Amino acid sequence: xxxxxxxxAIIVMVTALYGFGYFNSPYIGTFRVAFYFSLIxxxxxxxVAAMEQSNHGYDPTPQSRENAGR
Length: 70
Description:
Shape: rod-shaped
Order of helices and strands: HH
Number of domains: 1
Structural class: mainly alpha
């Protein structure tokens, strides 16, 4: 999941450079749309990755009240 995030970050940076006029391109509007789309996709990917890892390997069963006396 980390590799996907890094690749999306690179895509966001390159499309931002094109979309905001760092490179000369007749398709500036298209690159801006691609930038915003990939930026939203990057944020969604990072949120999903953070939510997925929050419970990874967590097992509350041995600490529960029902098992405390056993």
